[in-house]
Write a structure and sequence with these properties.
The protein is α/β, with parallel strands linked by helices. It has helices at 92-98, 135-144, 157-160, 184-194, 206-219, 252-255; strands at 16-26, 29-35, 47-52, 68-76, 82-87, 105-112, 124-130, 150-154, 169-173, 180-181, 198-203, 223-226, 242-245, 248-251, 258-260. The protein has a 7-stranded mixed beta sheet with strand order 10-9-8-7-11-12-15, with helices on both faces. 45% of the residues are buried.
């Protein structure tokens, strides 16, 4: 991150159990809300390591599931304060998390990593997200203002239902079933061609982020990218989330997951794997 990056919000030591208070379905996605009275307010773009507090794993004769890293979708003030997380059932681990319902316990560690920062207040902010990568953009939009435009891409209409979690959203779908038929980066290109004095904040799959990086690089537009990568610990001990930058290798869970686009060279984003 740049020298102006503030200190990240640090997580309390050890895991804590939060109680699920709400479960909502938005098309292909599940949103879990949990009380977190003992945790600090997260920065937009930070993540948590999540696992079910009970019945976690594949059984006594099977390997237990590892905690999964999820960007925080929304922070809600109150007594107690609460957190929202966006999930998609894509395998045994996420299936177990998606099964949770109000009253169940959610074991979490976080907030972890470094989030988004206001790069230049004079520039208009554009949010660009793909799939579950829309999660950190929702909490960031809450901070920047509801009028901040969001460009969101999904594979189909069932996933596009997640767009209702943000405001002022324009949607693109791969199959054309909702919104623009094509890639979300085509919407971004149109926005940047209409007015280039912008700053882009993006999160999504590697191919999308590389396209965002390139679009911004050729126009000399600053961008912050929340990279997705496999994370097993969240503290930098396992070296499972290492990516290459122009200055050398870094661990996304410590120096990221949000990085300035100018730190990344062509093709380096493609080596980051899915975080969820």
């Amino acid at each position: 991150m740049s020298a102006a990056t503030p200190e990240r919000t640090t997580a309390p030591f050890g895991a804590r159990t939060a109680v699920i208070t709400a479960r909502e379905r938005h098309g292909a996605y599940i949103v879990l809300r949990c009380n977190d009275p003992d945790g600090p307010r997260p920065q937009a773009g930070q993540f948590y390591m999540l696992m079910a507090a009970g019945r976690w794993g594949g059984g006594s004769q099977e390997r237990p599931f590892l905690p999964r890293a999820f960007s925080v979708l929304r922070w809600r003030p109150g007594d107690p304060q609460s957190l929202d997380f966006l999930l998609e059932d894509v395998g045994p681990g996420t299936e177990r998390l998606c099964e949770l319902s109000p009253g169940d316990g959610l074991s979490l560690v976080g907030p972890l990593g470094r989030g988004f920062t206001v790069a230049d207040p004079s520039r208009r902010a554009l949010l660009v997200g793909g799939g579950v990568g829309i999660a950190p953009l929702a909490i960031w939009q809450d901070e920047l203002g509801a009028e901040t435009p969001a460009l969101l891409g999904f594979r189909d209409g069932a996933h596009a239902a997640g767009a209702q979690l943000l405001r002022a959203a324009r949607v693109a779908t791969d199959d054309g079933s909702h919104g623009h038929h094509g890639f979300v980066t085509e919407l971004l290109q149109d926005e940047l061609d209409d007015g280039g004095h912008a700053v882009v904040y993006a999160c999504g799959p590697p191919a999308m982020l590389e396209a965002v990086r390139l679009l911004c690089a050729v126009r000399e537009i600053p961008a912050q990218l929340a990279l997705e990568s496999g994370m097993a610990c969240g503290f930098g001990a396992c070296f499972g989330c290492v990516v290459q930058t122009k200055a050398g290798f870094i661990r996304l869970c410590l120096e990221g997951p949000v990085l300035d686009a100018e730190q990344l060279g062509p093709g380096t984003i493609a080596h980051a794997g899915p975080r969820h």
